[in-house]
Design brief:
Layout (H helix, E strand, L loop, with lengths): L1 E3 L8 E4 L2 E11 L7 E8 L5 E7 L3 E4 L3 E11 L2 E6 L5 E5 L15 E7 L2 E6 L3 E9 L13 E5 L4 E4 L8 E5 L4 E5 L2
Antiparallel strand pairs: 1-6, 2-3, 2-6, 3-4, 4-5, 7-8, 7-10, 8-9, 10-11, 12-13, 12-15, 13-14, 15-16
């Protein structure tokens, strides 16, 4: 589907110069002389490059629709992650780079969503929140009772998060995967 350069929005996936790009930021600029244009910051979904491009209203780009499919995470083999298609039970191996920093939150049997372009996986979406156990938490400092006082803690996957003072080692909590923040105590 072709769209005008000034109709590009953050989150759009577009085809540009033979690559697949995800739009991160846009800025509409209308200079004193000359035509208006859209300054677009985007990231290549295949190789991770970032670029800034100016699109005028006369420019058109191809908007890409990605297919999504649920896969189950099985295990890590070196720097490769093994996933299984929940429908066909076919297994695929993907580099840890495709998941990014969220790779620490992958858990055995976790259902993830793969975004596919031409049947080729280009990104992996984990659930927004996961349950994890605190293995190490600093002691509460006496007199530090302000509601905004958080203390550092280490999760069972090695990730450090800030938690409220009443949380101690051994407690299971819910963590936001992409923000790496404490959400609440696990029920």
């Amino acid at each position: 589907m072709k769209i005008s350069g000034v109709d590009i929005r953050p989150g759009n996936i577009i085809e540009y110069e033979g690559g697949i790009w995800k739009v991160a930021k846009i800025q509409h600029t209308q200079p004193g002389k000359g035509g208006a244009y859209m300054q677009v910051e985007m990231k290549n979904l295949i190789d991770g490059r970032k670029t800034n491009v100016r699109f005028r209203s006369a420019d058109t780009v191809e908007k890409v629709r990605l297919d999504t499919k649920d896969f189950q995470y099985l295990y890590t083999d070196g720097d490769m992650l093994v996933f299984m298609d929940t429908d066909t039970f076919d297994q695929i191996n993907l580099s840890t780079d495709i998941v990014g920093d969220a790779v620490a939150f992958l858990q055995d049997g976790m259902t993830v969503t793969l975004e596919l372009y031409d049947e080729k996986p280009i990104s992996v979406q984990l659930p927004d929140q996961v349950e994890a156990e605190i293995v190490e938490a600093d002691a509460v400092v006496k007199g530090q009772t302000a509601s905004s006082s958080y203390k550092p803690a280490v999760l069972d996957n090695g990730v450090r998060v800030m938690v409220p003072p009443h949380i101690s080692a051994g407690t299971r909590i819910i963590v936001d995967v992409y923000e790496r923040t404490y959400v609440g105590k696990a029920g």
